[in-house]
Recover the amino acids of this structure.
C-alpha cells in the first residue's frame, strides 16, 4: 500500500511517483486546493474560498467543488495503483451542491468506496471548517490506466 504523502513529501525519491509532484497542477492550484494527506484509500485537503471563486451572484461557483471532487479522488486513486505503473482517470463525476457559501475554509475528504483492477469508486465530502456543515458531496468513478503513453507520464513535469 502506498504510504501517506503530505506537502513535505510531495515529490517522492523512489517508486512510481519518483520525481513527480502529485500535488502540483496549475488547474488545482488555481482552484486553491491544497492536499494535507494522500494515501491510496483517503485524501484530505482544504480550500480557502473567497471572491476569486465567486459566480456573478457572489457565491462560490459549483465548479470549485466539482474540481475538488475530481482532483482529490484522482490523486488518491492514482496513489492506489502507482505501484502497478498506472494512474487513475475520472470517467464519471457526480457532484451535489448542498448549500451556498461566499467565503471561508472548506475541508475536502475523499475516501475509496471500491477499488478493483480496472476501476475505482470514490466518495468526497466538502465541509465548512466554520460550522462543520456539508457544503457539497460527490462521487467519482475512475479507470485505472497505464501511466506510459500519456501526454504527461509519471516523472515528467510540464
Amino acid at each position: 500500500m502506498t504510504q501517506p504523502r503530505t506537502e513535505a513529501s510531495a515529490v517522492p525519491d523512489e517508486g512510481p511517483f519518483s520525481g513527480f509532484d502529485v500535488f502540483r497542477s496549475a488547474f488545482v492550484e488555481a482552484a486553491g486546493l491544497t492536499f494535507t494527506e494522500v494515501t491510496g484509500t483517503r485524501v484530505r485537503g482544504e480550500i480557502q474560498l473567497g471572491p476569486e471563486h465567486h459566480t456573478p451572484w457572489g457565491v462560490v461557483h459549483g465548479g470549485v467543488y466539482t474540481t475538488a471532487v475530481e482532483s482529490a479522488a484522482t490523486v488518491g486513486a492514482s496513489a492506489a495503483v502507482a505501484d502497478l505503473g498506472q494512474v487513475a482517470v475520472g470517467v464519471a463525476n457526480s457532484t451535489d451542491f448542498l448549500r451556498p457559501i461566499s467565503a471561508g475554509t472548506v475541508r475536502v475528504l475523499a475516501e475509496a468506496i471500491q477499488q478493483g483492477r480496472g476501476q475505482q469508486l470514490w466518495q468526497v465530502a466538502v465541509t465548512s471548517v466554520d460550522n462543520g456543515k456539508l457544503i457539497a458531496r460527490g462521487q467519482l468513478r475512475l479507470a485505472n490506466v497505464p501511466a506510459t503513453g500519456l501526454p504527461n507520464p509519471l516523472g515528467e513535469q510540464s
Summary: The first helix runs from residue 26 to 31. The chain is about 15% helix and 40% strand. The two ends are 27 Å apart (CA to CA). The beta strands are 33-38, 42-49, 86-97, 104-115, 119-128, 134-146.
